[in-house]
Amino acid sequence: MTKNSFPKDFLWGGALAANQVEGAYLEGGKGLTTVDLMPTGKKRWDIAIGNVESFEPMEGEFYPSHVAIDFYHRYKEDIALFAEMGFKALRVSISWARIFPNGDDQEPNEAGLKFYDDLFDELLKHGIEPVVTIAHFDVPIHLVEAYGSWRNRKLVELFETYSKTIFKRYKNKVKYWMTFNEINMLLHLPFIGAGLVFNEGDNKLQIQYQAAHHQLVASALAVKACHEIIPDAKIGCMLAAGMTYPYTCNPDDVYKAMEKDRESFFFIDVQSRGEYPGYAKRFFKDNGLTIEMEPGDEELLKNGTVDYIGFSYYGSRATSTDPEILKQISSGNVFASVENPYLEKSEWGWPIDAKGFRITANQLYDRYQKPLFVVENGLGAADVVTAEGEVIDDYRIEYLRKHIAAMGEAIQDGVEMIGYTSWGPIDIVSASTGEMKKRYGYIYVDRDNEGNGSLNRMKKKSFDWYKNVIATNGENL
Ligand code: BG6
C-alpha cells in the first residue's frame, strides 16, 4: 500500500445530481424537465436515445425522478450524515427548471434560488465545500418543445442567462463549478445528455454535433462569466472517461481504440485547449457534416477554456476490428464495449478495472496538463438488508479500496488531483435504468424500484470504512 500520496487539502466527498435525488418535481415553482419524462423499465432506454412519444408523464408509468429520494425535503438529515463521514466536498447540480421553470422565463424563480441558497448554507455550516454542476442531464421540457433543445442556437443565450444568474447569486458560497455533466453523453444518450428528440429522416449525427457545438460555446461563455463574476472560483468541464483498450496489438485495433477515445476527447479538447482538433475536422468532412458557427465563436472557444478536468470513471472500455470479437459487446454499458477477458463485471455488466483508473488519469493529465477532479466513481450493486437490519457491502469497499489506491498511484505518477467525490454516497435513482435497486451509497435508502418504502436512511458497513479513509487522508484503505 502506498503512503501519503494525497495532498493535505484533498477534497474527499460524494457526488449527486438534482434529478436523481431531489424529487419534489413540481414543488417550489419548478418546471418539468427531460428526466421527469423518463420512466423506469423498457421505455426509458428508448426515450434516453431520443425516441420520445409524449412531453407529459404517461398514465401507467412510474417516474422515479418525481420523488427520487426526497432530498429536497431531507437534505439537512443527509448532509449531517455526510458531515459525520467527514466529507470535505459535496458535488450537487442545480436544476435549471427550479431557477427558470420554462428555461426562457424573463425572471428567475425566487423559491428555486432560495432552495439552493439554503442547501449551500447547510453544507458550509458543516465545513463542506459545494461543487456545483450547472447542467446534469435535466433540460427544462419547454426548451425541448419550443426550440428543439440544444439543436437550436437559442439555447446558448438561455444557458448563459441561467449561468450568470446562479454565478451572481452564489458567488460567495460556491467556488467549484462544472458546466455540463458528461458532455460526451450527448453522442450516446442524446435525450439525457442534451434533450434531443429525433424525427424520422433526421440526420442524427449532424444534429448531435451541431448540438455539441452549441454546448461547447455555451460552456465557454459560462467559463468566461464565472471568471468575471467570481474571480476566485475554478470552473471545469466533465467527461465520462474510461480509456478504450485495443483488443489486440493489431494496428487496426489500436487505431480504432484511438478513434473511440477521440470521440470523447473531442469535447474536452475544445473545452480545455480552446479549438476544434484536426481529427474532428476530418471526421466532419468524411461524414458530410457541416457545423454552423457564428462569427466570433472561435474566439469565444479560445477564451473560455476550463481550469480543471472533471471526470467520471466507472471502468475501461475495449474495442476491436474483428467481427467475431465484436459479437461480444458487453451488455448494460452505456458505452458499447467488447468484453475484456481480463476483467470482472458488476451485476449490471460494467467492467471493473482499477488499474484502468490509474491509466485513464495519466492519459487525461498527459493530454491536458491541468488538474483533474474525480467527480464520480463507484460500484452500482443490489444491496441486501440482513435480518439484523444491516447492509454488509464488502464488495463496494473492495471496489473503492482498489480504485482509491489506483488514484493514489496516479498522484504519485505526477498527476495533479483536486479531489474525489464518489458517486451516490447515499442511494439514489440510477440514471441509465431508473432503478433504486442499483445502489452506490454508504447510506441505504429504504425505497424500491416501484416507489415503495419509508425513504428512511441507514448506514451501511461502507459508511465507517469511508469515514476512516477520509480521516486518514487515504492512508487507511
Ligand atoms: C454517470 C452520470 O453517467 O454515471 C450519473 O453522471 C449516473 O448521473 C452515473 O447516475 C452512474 O450511472 P447509473 O446508470 O448506474 O446511475
Automatic annotation (TrEMBL):
Keywords carried by this UniProt record: Glycosidase, Hydrolase
Top class in the EC scheme: hydrolase
List of catalytic residues: 376
Pfam families registered for this protein in UniProt: Glyco_hydro_1
Any GO MF annotation of the entry: 6-phospho-beta-glucosidase activity
EC identifiers of the protein: 3.2.1.86
Family (UniProt): Belongs to the glycosyl hydrolase 1 family.
Name under which the protein is recorded: 6-phospho-beta-glucosidase
Organism: Heyndrickxia vini
Encoding gene, per UniProt annotation: ascB
